[in-house]
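REVIEWER CHECKLIST
Item 1: Sequence provided? yes
Item 2: Single chain? yes
Item 3: Sequence as submitted:
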Amino acid sequence: MQTKIVPSQKMLLFAAAVCAALFTFGQNADANRIPMPPVATPLGMQVTATSSPNLLGTVIPGLLGNGGQAARDALMTNNLRPMVLGAHSGPNPGSAAHPFYSRSLNAFNPLPAATTTNAVIASGLSGGTGNVAIDLSKYGTYQYLVAAYDGPNGGVAVWDIAGLTGTITIFGFAHPEIVGPLHLRTGNLLGANSGQYRITGWTLLNQTSPPSVPDGGATVMLLGAALGALGVARRYLLRA
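Item 4: Structure as written out by the authors:
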């Protein structure tokens, strides 16, 4: 049986084709690699001076029921929208049927009516630990973010997140600030990454832009071109 010896020049050509294919695919993979998001400071929940950035207001305790999580959170958001800056509404302390609403001192414009269209909800978080990260690249950008903490014991925070992108971090635990012998609420929710009360869910309302689609087409095209080059080189060598 004869052994076919491939000329060294053609071996070099084949090696060059392999290296080019691997380099092309590797470069494109690096270009599309998503970096890890930086550790972010959780959004604050203080309505009193100075109000936390992006905070629209708080509801203590949060409403229950009212047609599901998205509908309930939209209702609370719409109750906060028309309130005068720094104002409070409802009995203090409030109840699940009649909460205590507190509007922050932050002026936002515009403040469109909250709807449930394209709303994103996360629930069943009560068994978790630590703070909660929300990656907007998965869902798109939104006008409002609503977070609820342990129904009848905690409260609800509503933020205007229009213009925010990337990963948003919110506290995993919060409890109402209580003052005086009558145990009145200030409207502030005191956030922490442990303690009481655990977040039970969050809702994104009023989508302002859809999530970005990864450019997978370019990767497929480059990989196809690289494999095609290898195929041509292989056929060339077999004819040698």
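Item 5: Key structural point noted by reviewer: The chain has two domains: 8-32+215-238, 55-209.
Item 6: Recommendation: ____
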